[in-house]
Each structure stands twice: as structure tokens, then as C-alpha cells.
Amino acid sequence: MNGLNATTRPPRPDRLLAWMGGLADPTRIRLLHLLERQELGVAELCSALRLPQSTVSRHLKVLADDGWLEARTRATSRLYRMAEGVDGAARKLWRLAREQSAGWPALSQDRMRLARILEDRRGAADRFFAGAAADWDRLRAELYGSAWVTEAILSLLPVTWTVADLGCGTGDFAARLSRHVARVHAVDRSTAMLKTAERRHGERQNLTFWPSELSELVLPDESCDAAFLTLVLTYQADAAPVLREAARVLRPGGLLVIVDLAPHGDDAFRRRLNQARDGFPPGEIAALCRAAGLAAASHSLPVEAGQKGPGLFLCRAEKAAA
Q1: Rounded to an integer, what distance in angstroms lies between the CA atom of residue 133 and that of residue 106?
Q2: How far apart (Å, rounded) are the C-alpha atoms in residues 197 and 17?
């Protein structure tokens, strides 16, 4: 490049002549008017200016060599836009050229044609989504899976938090949590579950495993910023002491998130999973949270396509700030 940025600066007369040379052609002025506001490919520029590709490419090369443009490759196309690092003095020269050329009839026509090109571009996207709308969720799940949804939501957790996964089972959820927060306490009464969790995820330095009854947690008072009870309470003969313990280990302002089964009346299902209860009315858990000193609200979760088990609810409870 001939020196539109501060890294390589030839003597000032050479720089001035290079800048003026870059602007000393009406086609290059027209190109810069379009590329100052929009990233465009060669074919789109040819359509907007109604010039052959050889002409447009030649002028783009001059502008790029003089540092007016930057380009990137997308698939088989090369996209251009005005460079971010144009020297301040060169920008003053461009502002003068832009002001003096603003009334050119050719520019008005260029902008009209470009507006139609961009509208066609948006229309192609709209037509794609209109055709894909009915199957979009299925298509996206097939292409990208569904784990990214959970990861995106978990990434909203503050990175400084300490979080408890109460009733962690084999530790998959605790391991996901550990990628987004400072520390995770994975707690479970089942030594078999904890051994499996440690074997799968024990290499994570910020993930600690605790054998403990949920109604008598080994964690200290106010040691966690958040806690999760996911599909756990239906295994407890009495949910109240578990919720009291969860409230105890939360810091002021801490959050408790509960996901569990809504009442389903399927005793065979309950026995097959060795659960103590066949679910809870969401309002019952919210009331127990309030009795434990937490402000709580709950709602039913939508049933997913292909879901074979009972419906679920979510309860979000918050400990009062100090």
C-alpha cells in the first residue's frame, strides 16, 4: 500500500500524490461512495455502476493498493469496503471529494441500482425463511444439535459465581456449569453416581464432588451464589428440609433454580424410577421455597416433541439481598 495508514509513511508529497491519484478518477469516486457505507462484492458493484468486471476490478485494485479499501474472502467471493485505517489527512481529502461529487447524477443512479440489489439480497433471505419456517426448528436441530442452547443460557451466569448442583447424578450438568463459572460444587448422596461423575469429569479443576444428604448439606452457610435442583425433589420423602438447606447455603441475593415433575398419577412410572412422589404441583414447591425464606415463582414447561416422560415445571427462587 502507498501509505494511507500510520505504519508505513513515505514523504508527505508522495503521500499526497498517492491519495490524489486514488481519487483522480470518477469511477473510483463512485466506488468509494458505495463502499463507504456497505460491504459489496465485485458482481454487485458491476451491477450498481453498470460497468464490466474488468473495469471495476482494475479500479478496485488501484484503491486497495493505495490503502483506500480493505477486502475479505467469503466462499468464492471477495468483498470490499472502505478501510478502517485510512489516515486522518486522507480522510479530509475524501470528505472534500465526497462533498464536491455528491450531486453527480451518476451517483444518484448508482444508489438507486444498489438499493434494488440490496432489496433483492434481502428478498432472497426472506424467501428462504418463508419456505423453511415450518421445518426451521427441526432443520436447525439436525444441523447444529441442541447443546448450544443450554451453553448460550449458561454463559449468562457471572463468571465469578460459585454454584451448587444439588443431586448432581453423573455430573454432566455440573461439568457444563463449570465451563461458565468460577467454581461448582457437585453434591449427591449416591456414591455410585459420584464415582461415575468423578471418572467422567474429575479433570476439571473448578469442579468439586461432595457426598452428602441434600437435607443436611456439608456446604457452609452462604457459600454459593446459585444452586440447582434438577429432577431431584421427587426422590425426597420430604422436600421442605432440602429447600431449607438450599436456602441456607445461598448468599444474600442468591438464586435457586428447580426443575421437576408435575403431578402425573403414573404409579408404574414412579416405581420404575424409584421415585418417592409422582410429581409436585408447581405452586406447592414455590410455597415451600417461600417458607424457607425465598421469594419464588413457578411455571409449567412446554412438552417437547418426542418427550416420553411426564410434564415438567420450573421454579425460580431468590434469597433476599442483605
Answers
A1: 40
A2: 69
Residue boundaries of the structural domains of the chain: 12-135, 144-319
Query: Is pTM, for the whole model, over 0.85?
Result: no
Architecture of domain 12-135: Orthogonal Bundle (1.10)
Burial code (b: 16+ CB inside 10 Å, e: under 16) for 147-175 equals: eeeeeeebeebeeebbbbbbbbbbbebbb
- What is the CATH number assigned to the segment(s) 144-319? 3.40.50.150
Whether the pLDDT of residue 30 is over 80: the answer is: yes
Residue 193: all three cell numbers together: 453416581
Average pLDDT over residues 231-258: 95
Quote the cell numbers at residue 12.
Answer: 508527505
Beta bridge partners of 74: 77
Contact between 224 and 177 (Cβ < 8 Å): no
H/E segment holding residue 223: none
The residue type of 81 is R
| 133 in Cβ contact with 158 (< 8 Å) | no
Tally of helices (H runs) and strands (E runs) in the chain: 13, 10
Which helix or strand (DSSP H or E) is residue 163 part of?
strand 162-166
Q: Which alpha helices (H) appear in the chain, and where do they start and end?
A: 12-22, 26-35, 42-49, 53-65, 88-101, 105-132, 136-144, 147-154, 172-178, 191-201, 239-249, 267-272, 282-291
